[in-house]
# Entry
Amino acid sequence: MKKNKISEINIEKVFYPNAGKIIKDKKGTLISTIVDEELDEFECRFNYDESVEIITKGSTHITLGIHQLKHMIKLIKMTEEMYKRDSKKDKE
# Structure
């Protein structure tokens, strides 16, 4: 008897394929997008101060689970390293 394979679809990646990718805006600020537990998209700004500013414009609330919080910490660490690298390049 053949077993049916059930593939798991990451719905977050289907609707928000750029979520979690870090880009630099025109002012040089590193930004990314996160998706909360309710599949709402939020812009995040990383200002080189070991924190994140979550833009909640147009929303009444944001619901983050452990997965999103751990991912946010990872993004903060990654952007801090990117800022440090850029800072070193500027001094050279």
